[in-house]
Design a protein that fits this description.
This protein has 252 residues and is mainly alpha-helical. The protein has 10 helices and no strands.
């Protein structure tokens, strides 16, 4: 789970560097014009389409390993399911549906704190990033506006990099997954929302103090927001299966 989350964070960093590299190649460090922005948007969409096609080809070319056949197919109920008659198939389908509902209710009873912790974590992140701090005034009235034109890219790169760092701290992630209960994760997600919501909003929309000071508050807040997002959601994903009691059926 930790490796999947770290890979997810790394993809965000790569996307940010691709965006910044394309902008530097087309416009340099100066403000970007509307025409260049439209060209970069089309190029980025085209690049994502090519990568999506390449990933589809790779996924279709994969073959199942012997481990899959040994541990998944060997314990599947499908072979006995297709060996019975039509009436027994209907009864089996209904039984499997009832078992699935029962297993889902049992799983929800144990993992709902982790589910809410992940939901609150993502809600806080997506509420505060990237539009609100990205549209904040980063240049003082007497400035030339170069920093303002790069501010959105800086905000996105800062969050993606720190999110990747939070998802890559293996030692602290293992500690959090083993020591923090689901309820503790839920409390941390709530405290995180109560801290970052006023901190980012007062520095962004509208700014309640000087723009020069507010820009550093925004950068520091987004960095902390990214690290906490990556760390807390990864801990919740790692810890959720362990919330189930021992000898829980595999269907759950």
């Amino acid at each position: 789970t930790q490796m999947v989350q770290a890979g997810n964070g790394a993809c965000g960093v790569i996307v940010s560097f691709v965006q910044i590299g394309a902008r530097l190649f087309s416009s340099g460090f100066g403000p970007i014009e509307k025409g260049h922005f439209e060209i970069l948007t089309k190029a980025f969409i085209g690049l994502m389409g090519v990568l999506s096609f390449a990933l589809s080809v790779i996924a279709l070319s994969m073959t199942r390993t012997t481990l899959y056949a040994r541990y998944v197919e060997a314990h599947s109920d499908d072979r006995s399911f297709y060996a019975v008659g039509d009436k027994r198939k209907d009864i089996a389908v209904q039984a499997k549906a009832r078992a699935l509902v029962k297993a889902s209710c049992l799983a929800i009873r144990h993992v709902w704190p982790s589910f809410l912790a992940i939901a609150i974590t993502f809600w806080t992140t997506l509420t505060l990033w990237p539009v609100i701090p990205g549209r904040a005034c980063a240049s003082p009235p007497y400035g030339k506006g170069t920093l303002q034109s790069w501010w959105f890219d800086i905000v996105i790169l800062t969050f993606n990099t720190c999110d990747f760092i939070g998802k890559s701290l293996r030692g602290s992630l293992l500690w959090g997954a083993s020591c923090l209960s689901p309820m503790c994760q839920l409390y941390l997600a709530i405290v995180r929302a109560l801290v970052f919501l006023p901190l980012v909003l007062t520095a962004s929309a509208p700014q309640l103090y000087d723009a020069t000071c507010a820009r550093w508050v925004v950068v520091a807040s987004i960095a902390a927001l990214g690290v906490s997002n990556g760390w807390l959601c990864t801990v919740a994903f790692m810890r959720a299966p362990r919330a189930l009691p021992p000898n829980t059926p595999n269907l759950v």
